Amino acid sequence: MDDLLDDKAKIEKRRAKDETVRCATPVLWIIIPCYNEEKVLPLTSEMFLNKLLSLISAGDVDEQSKLLYVNDGSSDETWRIISDLSVKDDHVIGISQSRNRGHQNAVLAGLMEAKDHCDITISIDCDGQDDIDAMTQMVAEYKKGSEVVYGVRSDRNNDTWFKKNTAESFYRLLNMMGAEVVFNHADYRLVSARVLKEFADFQEVNLFLRGLFPLVGFRSSTVYYVRHERIAGDSHYPLRKMLALAFDGITSLSVKPIRLITLMGFIVAAFSILGVIWSIVCFCMGRTVSGWASMTSIVCFLGGVQLIALGVIGEYIGKIYLEVKHRPRYIISERTGQFYQKESDR
Ligand code: UDP
Ligand code: MG
Q1: Domain limits of the chain?
Q2: Which of 39, 22, 15, 108 has the alpha carbon at shortest distance from 68?
Q3: Are strands 332-336 and 92-97 parallel, antiparallel or unpaired?
Q4: Most buried residue, 111, 138, 145, 265, by most Cβ within 10 Å?
Q5: What is the pTM of this model?
Q6: What lines the ligand 1 site, CB under 6 Å?
Q7: What's the CATH code, domain 4-244+328-345?
């Protein structure tokens, strides 16, 4: 009976039969977000293709596997480079976003594009910083039963002292503030199509992918790798953007900051009661003229506390505002490469 079914039907039958059964050669789509990467792509694209071809020839993944480049509204030659790559090799395909939407949205666009066409995805930056050889181990972990495999940096010796410390404080701060993230894991991860289908129901606009996948659940594992330096070009994540990302991560995943404000409110209220008692005592003792300095400091302190509190609450209201609009999280304007041939072939 199986012989009569084409490949696509076989895949669907296998999924329907038992979601937990691992295919010996899953169809892998590698998702690579690119923003103004004309300097780095010509160097790393060959590396990615060779890795994919070696996984295929080793029998680790299916011949139908693809490299999906996501152009995040680049203003340089990135999209032309991707289009050329897709003409040269059928394993390479590309989508282009209508404008720059940021790394997280670019990865999301790739994942959503991939989810109905493959068994597993691996997202990786295009700058060659993440060790591509960790993919072999990720696929092996998937075959052992993990639905999500997190790539975790084993050391940061290649980072500057400043980058290492700010990045590690970033993960500590996130966890302290109630956003559950895997320490030292960025966006290099394997996610199965099964998890992506559940993840598609997470409709949020404020995206912080590394904090969302732990929320989806399913069996997960980690693979350690050494993070290299960028092969060419410059990072798009200076300290300012990293702080913004941390803030986005915290406020989109946790309400702990609002709880801390409530706690702070209680503490300040308790102190104010003491202050009121103190001022009544002073009044009774006839010492009410002096005390200008203490009065001014209290007013300034309370003014500051209130502004911070308003700011944090405002941040949440801003997030709600963006969420209720339900704007599309990405818009694909162009595609390149043999996308659907695979579908009809199967
Ligand atoms: N990126 C993107 N859109 C952006 C910024 C970055 O798609 O608006 C991509 C970028 O091309 C790279 C990845 O996201 O593949 C990570 O960016 P980068 O290497 O600059 O960050 P870093 O590794 O320094 O944190
Ligand atoms: Mg990088």
Answers
A1: 4-244+328-345, 256-325
A2: 108
A3: antiparallel
A4: 138
A5: 0.76
A6: 33-35, 37, 72, 100, 102-103, 106, 125-127, 129, 235-237
A7: 3.90.550.10
